[in-house]
Amino acid sequence: MYQLTKPDNVVEMLDKAVSKFPGRPYLGTKNIKLKQYDWITFSDFGKRVDNVRSGLSQLGIVKDDAVGIISNNSTDWAVCFYAANGLGARFVPMYEAELVSVWKYIINDARIKVLFITRKEIYEKIKDAISASSTLKKVIIMEGDGPDTLADLERKGASKKVPGTYPEHSAICILIYTSGTTGDPKGVLLSQGNITNNAHTALERFKYMNENERTLSILPWAHVFGLGELVIMCQLGASIGIAESAGTVAEDLALVKPTFLVAVPRVFNKVYDGLWTKMNEEGGLARKLFVMGVESGKKRRELAAQGKSSAMTNLKFKIADAIVFKKIREKLGGRLVGSMTGSAAMNVEISHFFWDIGIPLYDAYGLTETSPGATMNGPDKYRIGSIGPVMQNCRIVIDKSEVGPESIDGEIVIYGPNVMQGYYNKPEATAAVMTPDGGFRTGDRGRLDEDGFLWMTGRLKEQFKLENGKYVFPVSIEEDIKLNHFIENAMIYGEGREFNICLVIPDFAALDKWAEKNNLPKDHEKLIKMDEVKKFLTAEINNTLQGKYANYEIPKKFIFISEPFSVQNGTLTQTMKLKRRIVFDKFKDQIAASYTK
Fold first, then answer.
1. Closest by alpha carbon to 272, among 335, 378, 337, 359?
2. What CATH number does the domain located at 267-459 have?
3. How far is the C-alpha of 445 from the C-alpha of 410, rounded, in Å?
4. Where are the extended beta strands (E) located within 283-336?
5. pLDDT, tens digit (0-9, with 9 covering 90-100), for 165-184
6. CA distance 378 to 365
7. What is the CATH code of the structural domain delimited by 16-260?
8. According to CATH, what is the number of the domain 464-594?
9. How many angstroms separate the most distant Cα atoms in the chain?
10. Which residues of the chain are in CATH 3.40.50.12780 domains?
11. pLDDT tens-digit map of 14-51
12. CA angle, 206 as apex, 204 and 211 as ends, to 5°?
């Protein structure tokens, strides 16, 4: 049986940070006009939390009540999170970029009592659901300074202080709704112990970290992977700059100068693709130096694995590093010493590149239901291509019951203090994923090597059989297709069919340049219907996949689409995972036509 490390609740964790690091910066918000970050200290942050907690208490919030929020990452978001927890209430976060129907569902399903909303425009979209709710007592607008605003609540709290409480480790800290690739979202109940255990065990893997760390918050705190960053930096007494938007990350990196990033592979895939695009466009000496650096980095790594070294290889790399790679590091802020990546598989070639230039990418694995961490690579124990060794207190079993005892892999089943308390109000759904002895069935397929590193091999629910009986794991194929410079997104389909087809969203920023060079129209709808464009993109995808996948895995036909997959049109979850059923339903006629002989 495991023993939880203290503190085992986020409220005490914050109190200790405020006491130990009162004058240190915690959260930074971008001042768009001045192009700089303004920071709030732990002391001032703690005072705001005290005031909002007292204000919530005056509104009648008590233990186990649900406090909801519709907001992007902000200092206000974090204040509300810690304030609600200080009363033993459960926090229910929602994304600003969400379907209105999902907001309405969560408000009712979670039985939210007080709801924070970032802007009045959002309130107007859901006011009918608010008035119809039997549990919602108060709505607080986070902007402005009038009645029923966050500023008003803080003033009321400051005038009548209410002491906080340290919740039990078993108390629910946060209720996070999974995006739901099928059916309604499910509310994942995560306890104080779930969240704090994840923070403690992550820092066991990164022992060197201290209060001098700084990150740039890219991932939403409404997702548990992002929330882990908020809690861990608090525990350290370190600081987080909040990215203005996905489109400003490059500028924000330069301003915040992070020492560490918590990100998804797509961030580094885009950087890598952008570097090659720029070098190919510039050509000349710059490209030659870049290619020399990439090749010498690879050679140096291969020699080191054999216990060898080459003076010429080292010299080539040193020249490229001083002239080219140094500029790349400066673009990322100049202080970045590593990044944790999760949510999808990291391409091994790209991972090697960043390791070579001095920015290690540490793949980690977990789910919302595991708070999220279960395995994690780290500075002292890593294997590129794996998703890391098992984290402290956690145990993983590979269940081969669905794939056969002769298989080297099977379903990943996770045990430990990181496993959720269940799905809220969904006992049948909970029972379906929990083993009798408390393990969580992930639905992911993987294997453990002889040294205890976990390797992902697919997803049981997403794998399918072709007509010939051969299994296809679409996600890995899709991820590789998306690495192509001209492709934004892709979905493989072929269940029970003679061959695979692929729905493709081109990257129009890249395709437009190609079209201009070839005197083709800029109208995207027209562009994707042209034979020369289809042939070009088909060749690009085939070149990407050839030699890496069996012939039966490579799609034989393509459907090119101009409208991106997105959260707004319901085809992507908040973590950018495909809602396959939704995509299939939307394009079922074109899919059927692809199989017509």
1. 359
2. 3.40.50.12780
3. 5
4. none
5. 999 999 999 999 987 555 67
6. 12
7. 3.40.50.12780
8. 3.30.300.30
9. 76
10. 16-260, 267-459
11. 999 999 999 999 999 999 999 999 999 999 999 999 99
12. 105
